[in-house]
Design brief:
This protein is mostly beta strands and 85 residues long. Helices cover 0% and strands 52% of the residues. The chain has one domain: Urease, subunit C, domain 1, CATH 2.30.40.10. The chain contains no helices and seven strands.
């Protein structure tokens, strides 16, 4: 599979990812959605510092890990819910 580039400019890698890399945070098991590129698949997100370093369908190692099974993992949404006073 070819790499997919997300709107933030980070690579979504479906092929091999180096198992030597340990990310600060790995979010796995969730449905990763990027409306800008149309990427929508179950994948793992590797975060280094304040930035997404990689999105991969291969296993990733992280200092911290979050199991996002059953959740959507995506760029922040603005909550448009409000009540008129």
């Amino acid at each position: 599979m070819l790499p997919v580039w997300l709107g933030s400019g980070c690579p979504a890698v479906a092929a091999a990812t180096s198992s030597d890399v340990v990310y600060d945070l790995v979010i796995s098991g969730g449905r990763v959605i990027d409306p800008e590129t149309g990427f929508d698949a179950s994948a793992k997100v590797g975060v280094k510092g304040d930035s997404i370093a990689v999105i991969s369908q291969m296993p990733l190692s992280g200092s911290r890990e979050i199991d996002a099974t059953g959740h959507a993992v995506t760029a922040g949404f603005i909550d448009q819910h409000f009540h008129w006073s």
